[in-house]
Design a protein that fits this description.
binds calcium ion; Beta-Lactamase; 21 strands; 692 residues; TIM Barrel; alpha/beta; rod-shaped; Alpha-Beta Plaits; binds ligand C2E; five-stranded antiparallel sheet
Length: 692
Amino acid sequence: MFNLSRYFSTVSFILIVLAAGVLGPLYRQLSLQQMQELAEGRNVAMAQVFENSLREPLAALMADALGRDVEFLRQSPKSAALQASVLELMHNTAVVKVKIYNRLGNTVFSTDQLQIGESKLDNPGFRSAMRGTTVSELTHRDRIDSFEGTLAEVDVLASYIPIVGKDHAVEGVFELYQNVTPFVAQLQRSLWWVTAGVVVVFALLYLMQFLVVRRAQGILEDQEGRIKAARDTLEVQVAARTDELKRTNSQLEGEISERRQAQSKLNYLAYHDPLTGLANRRCFIERLEESLRENGRHGERLAVLFIDLDQFKQVNDSLGHGVGDELLVAVAARLSEHVRLIDMLARLGGDEFICLMEAVRSEDEVEMLAREILGAFDQPFKFGDHELFLTAAVGISLFPGDGDSVLELMRNADTAMYRAKAQGRGNFHFYTPEMTRDAQVRIRMENLLRRAQENGELSVHLQPQVETQSGKLVGAEALVRWNSPELGEVMPMSFIPMAEDSGLIIGLGNWVLRETCRQFVQWRDSGFDLPQVSVNLSVKQLERPEFIDVLEQILDETGMDPTRLKLELTESVVMAVSDSFALLERLRDLGISLALDDFGTGYSSLSYLKMLPIQQLKIDGSFVEGIGRNPGDEAIIRTVMELARSMGFEVVAEGVETEAQAAFLAQLGCEQLQGYLHGRAVAPAEFRARWS
Ligand code: C2E
Ligand code: CA
Ligand code: CA
């Protein structure tokens, strides 16, 4: 910081020294001048005295001097007399020497005899005096010869004073030497005093000012300290505020980006299937809507292809949802990779996928795409030790033609897919308007089935099961029949899946169970003792928590012997019901037998099956059908037989229509047979008539 005190000290010091340096000599000069004037005045007065009192001898001497030599003058008695008079006048005065010059500059008189005769014609003082002006000169002399002896170290003032005659003409010049040593000494002393005084005054002034300045500096420093502190505080506050702002800013940014992320995640979730990462239903619908608007304007054609996996439910039920999910992800990847013509692929949910093809030029092009989709399933899907062959059904609807709205196009593609499914695994089908009529029929059928039970349109038929070796009746499978006044004889294949979808199967299944038991007991009571009767169970029935209670109630009501009752479950039923193991144990505890229906078509884990309290495996009719025709089917039957033997299961083959099939099965040790060969499912009366 600018040091005021130091600055002040320095500047003041310089100024004081300057002031002292100027004032001292100035004062000295003034004093000397004054002193000189005083002394000169005295010299002039003295000269006047000399002139007045020594006029006569002086004039005589002057007159004598003219034309005389020096020696004469020195030894002139007039000069000696004058000398005595002068000395008397000088007595007790400060005049130490007197000299008189004539107009020619010759020294006519001097208190120092030796100087008489000297010429002063060139002396400036003399010349001035000759012009009428008195001049003086102060000099310091190491020594000067005075009439009283020699003086050392004296200050003398020599004045040249004109001697003015009667006619005012200058007749000569007096030179008086006055000893001014005491004056000069006095002057010197006072000069010192004055200097000291000035210095003291200045010093005091300086000191006072210094104090004031220092105080001011203190105040300033204090102020500055405060200002600095305030500034520091401000800086700290600003820094803190900046920090805070930065933090808030980054926090805000963080929040914003978090929100943005959440938003984009939400957006992503809103439009994507979280499992497969494909677009979801909503996304597809919006895209299709847009396409319809666009393409509708430009007159372009579109195709919607509905894809449904054929056996996915079984896989999911038997291998578990984990594998099911993995499989869906793999299928999604496969479809995305293999299918080139797709403009958009989405997952609608479950095992349903859908895709959109834009700018369709011909139906052939769409067919090609459908084949490509089905071709994506040619290779098996691998999961650890599992290798699964899957197939899919593809239903296709076209725009324009098969609908104008998203809803219509999707629904019709779905309908076409059902038709493809009905044709067997791995098929595709274009939508036709009849399909809608079929679908309408299904809906109508459902409504009719709802009332069928109350209206007594349902009945239970029985199909015999015989011992392979003897052909003896060992049991019968109860199969529901529906004789509708509106639809005629409806086969279970066409209404059981619908009953399962609608939940009607629960009431229906329980009714069949009750009816079968009632029939069995009635027969037993009337003398026809059927060894065993089998009833099919739907997963929907088994899933009901009250199922065991209902079953026990039926057994109770009808008086049915549980040991004569067999329940047929498919693999998928067993796998789907969460606590199926405990449930089957309870059935087993009741004395009921259990058979695994449609065996070979599912994906059950054998180690799991082994733990289940199941007595019988039912080889699916589709394999039996292949006997003598399809070595693969025969191989499967052989494997099943071996498996069953090793695990201690009894085996019954269904769908046995020919002797050859029966012989093949007999040879492998299949204990029981069921099929048209031994009898179709027939009404109870007919059954009894045939088998009693
Ligand atoms: P399923 O349990 O596999 O029943 C065997 C089916 O094969 C029966 O068809 C039967 O009539 C038929 N069948 C028997 N022998 C032969 C044969 O030699 N050749 C041929 N081609 N077919 C034969 P149905 O009665 O039409 O029943 C079809 C399916 O409906 C049954 O298959 C069963 O899954 C289901 N179902 C029938 N009744 C009921 C029921 O009361 N409850 C439940 N939950 N499902 C039932
Ligand atoms: Ca069955
Ligand atoms: Ca079966």
